[in-house]
Amino acid sequence: MVRLAKIVKSNSHVDYVGRVIDVLDVDSPPAATDYGFAQFVSIPLDDSEIIGVIYNSQLANPDYGNFGPRLSPASDLSVLSPDYLNEQGTLVGILLLGWRDISGNENQQAVPRRVIPVNQDVYALDAEGVRRFHQGENGRVQLHYYSQVITHAGAFAVPLIEAIIEQLETGCAAEEWQRLCVLKQALVWQRTVGGMRL
Q: How do residues 85-138 score in pLDDT, each as one tens digit?
């Protein structure tokens, strides 16, 4: 699994913020494509792993608006001022969707009971992990976290659900694909009608 970020804060019990690891943390940081919109993530804990999805991103740049005199170029600051820290970075919003036990046998799509500690590592969840998390006991695709996404993802809720459906459509049975298409069409209709002003 690709390590993406570390948890730095939370906005609520299901909405966490992670700081993407960079060259100051590791020799080979993740590529920008590894932590894009609708990327599923895994946050391992002692006896389980929390499953979430990236739904937002922000750039942190404390130097923005600092128009004071520059004594040297930014590339020379590490040599001339070794105590200078580059505090620029990328923050990702992670919406928690559920959890699974370490053995991977039991998946729960609900609000996790555990609180994730600061500095906990965040990893990218591979396609097989995403498929297993969305597969119910009967083998059918499940999205029990739908209302949770609609409630907590704000303006990104509908595009997030659409992106999740697109990921799940590949490799599922024809009957499951039809169910996902109906849900996707309902989302398009809601967005169209919801945007109209009468």
A: 667 899 999 999 999 988 767 889 999 999 999 999 999 999 999 999 998 888
Beta strands 3-10; 121-124: pairing state: antiparallel
CB proximity list for 136: less than 8 A, separation 6 or greater: 142
CA 138 to CA 122: how far, in whole Å?
29
196 by Cβ neighbours in 10 Å (0-12 / 13-18 / 19+) ranks as: exposed
Closest CA to 106 of 56, 52, 51, 66: 51
Q: Residue 19 carries which side chain, given as an amino acid letter?
A: R
Q: Which residues pair with 121 in a beta bridge?
A: 6
Q: What does the pLDDT read at residue 47?
A: 86
CA atoms within 13 A on the CB side of 128: 2
What amino acid is encoded at 54 in this protein? I
Tokens representing 150 are 């609609």
Closest of 150, 161, 154 to residue 184, by C-alpha: 161
Total-model pTM: 0.86
Strand partners, 7: 18
Domain ranges of the chain: 3-146
